[in-house]
User: Fold this.
Amino acid sequence: MATIYDNRRGISRRELLKRGTVGAALIVSGRAVISPENAWGLEATALSPETVATLILIARDIYPHDQLADRFYAIAIKGQDTRAAKDASHKALIEDGVADLDKRAGSGGYRGLSWERDRVAILREIETTPFFQAVRGDLVVSLYDQKELWPIFGYEGESYSEGGYIDRGFNDIEWL
Amino acid sequence: MAAPYDLKDDGVVVIIGSGAGGGTLGNELAQRGIDVLILEAGSRIEFEDFINDEWESFAQLAWLDHRTTGGGWRVSKDFPNLPAWIVKAVGGTTTHWAGASLRFQEHEFKTLTHYGRIEGANLNDWPLTLAELEPYYTKAEDKMGVTRTNDIEGLPGNNNFMVFKAGADKLGYKECHTGRMAINSADRDDRMSCQQTGFCFQGCKWGAKWSTLYTEIPKGEATGKLEVRPNAHVVKIEHDKTGKVTGVVYADKEGKLHEQKARIVCLAGNSIESPRLLLNSHSAKFPDGLANSSGQVGKNYMRHTTGSVYAVFEKPVHMYRGTTMAGIIRDEARHDPSRGFAGGYEMETLSLGLPFLAAFLDPGAWGRSFTSALDNYANMAGMWIVGEDMPQEQNAVKLHRELKDQYGMPIPDVWFTDHPNDEAMRNHAYKQGMALYSAIGAIRTFPTPPYPSTHNLGTNRMSDKASDGVVNKWGQTHDVKNLFISDGSQFTTGGAENPTLTIVALAIRQADHIAKEMAAGTI
Ligand SMILES: Cc1cc2nc3c(=O)[nH]c(=O)nc-3n(C[C@H](O)[C@H](O)[C@H](O)COP(=O)(O)OP(=O)(O)OC[C@H]3O[C@@H](n4cnc5c(N)ncnc54)[C@H](O)[C@@H]3O)c2cc1C
Ligand code: SF4
Assistant:
């Protein structure tokens, strides 16, 4: 199983927002992709760790939110590795898809392209492929269904246990 | 006899489905002293167990059996196995629904007369008038506790409504309020009032919103004359050689088949499963499917002309707080061909949580144009458009030629393409919706495509003539006297209004008719 090691220091939301994540490099070490700055690692089981690191960047390029740390994208693509472990054809789909992107990107590979603009241009070329569809289709659920990131977007989630919003601002708009 | 009923009991009225149509009919018949058995494919999940989480709730309640879809609509590309968003559970889609409860307008029962022939549209007049249905609308509104009827106060407006109302005022719309909602604005009918939790689409955990699950069904059960059998998925309706139906075959939780006898069968599986079951019940006597001498079973599939408009503002709105459908504008609901289309539409506030908004705002979209919209989630307001769509013969629920479900029955293949009238209406509504939000300072607006169908109608339509409709004005099939259709598939045309109040009114009226005919011994 792919495992996400949680950041043990517990970064506050403010800190998360403050901390630019774009420059924070991911390191591949052994079977794992590690974010040394934010103290988490993702262990790849079926896919190569390089592929996993590239997937994390692809995920960000598909649904870019600068206020989200890489770990949210890592959690979001974790399912691809899990599925690849069970399904050889899925593993091939992902490995081949990433290899294709690396080839299109030139000598430095996909992760070697520094500008999002250049990476997105390549993704646009392949957006109708089964590889892209599989990654995006899963991601739109696996990314936005993470409860931990809802507050960053201002979505409060479950409200029954708080007694609903009847006394908590269902009609508190003031700017109209 | 008293519930529960024996498999061999051929005196019982069997209803297939426990949603708006089936659940209501079941209670109404039981109140009249008639033995009723509701067979429901889904399980029984009480409202305390609903989940305030969009995807988890979807997994808990939605109908996820295999379906396919085709035709020109975008849903067939974006959600190839999810033509409709409906429920498989006791209570049916009244667990998920928002609660908007509107009567049809008079002319909407007579569209062929009022709109005239429209090319490509299979318009027909209902064999019913508003005046005939009015007493039943009144009963339905009382039963469901619809706000702004029966001296029930309207719900308070939430933030999403206040934005909507400010825009409506700017555009000069006159009929804008917090709606006629089957949601308690004060304690009523042993149910509490709305706590503005904002998860109406996930099942109301307070029971404030009407659902057959915790109103009609327990009331019917209390008479001792109603049994609800969950996890009973009907796969076939059976008949004798005279052509009368004699019972149904259903699969239980383990997939084991049982035969349940019946005096009368009432079909209320919603507009995809109901025609599918008739088509799958073909026999030597009825080679094209049961009750299908007209060839109209499964045809004229309607889903309302829908779409949404979301808008981003400079400051917070928090649209998800409070009732999901918190208000309505009715000014565009009239029939006014000068706008470039026949029929009309309603505008109703709507909100989705972040997970669903990501999936439905612009399915398939990615990149910054898309994600920057979600970045402003807290500052978003939203509305839904619901208007009359044209019945078209080629829009149909068909049996899939190859694919079978877990019981070996052909799965439904749902075909839909917009009529030019639908497109003209949607474009008009998008323009109005965007203008409304822009008038009060929206920074960006998003004309959002239709979701998988929540309103499914017309596939066993009502007509006076056995040659062009499946059922008569009582929902009784023209071909088989003791077979009734009791859900939205009876609709001859869809009207601009959300359909459930009309489904419920028709079910109450049908109960009167069935009771009368049973007493007279004619069925
Ligand atoms: C998100 C959402 C919001 C909505 N909001 C509104 C609204 O505000 N206002 C409004 O008027 N309408 C609304 N609707 C639509 C409304 O829910 C439906 O119109 C209504 O529930 C349809 O009633 P029905 O009886 O036809 O079918 P359903 O309520 O869907 O019930 C059908 C039942 O039959 C069962 N069934 C199907 N096939 C079989 C079988 N073979 N054997 C046994 N059981 C079977 C199903 O499991 C289901 O429980 C909404 C729908 C959704 C999804
Ligand atoms: S907003 Fe009101 S009706 Fe909707 S789920 Fe919450 S309490 Fe129920």
Remarks:
- Confidence is low (pLDDT under 50) at residues 6-23 of chain A.
- The radius of gyration of chain A is 18 Å.
- The first strand of chain A starts at residue 27 and ends at 29.
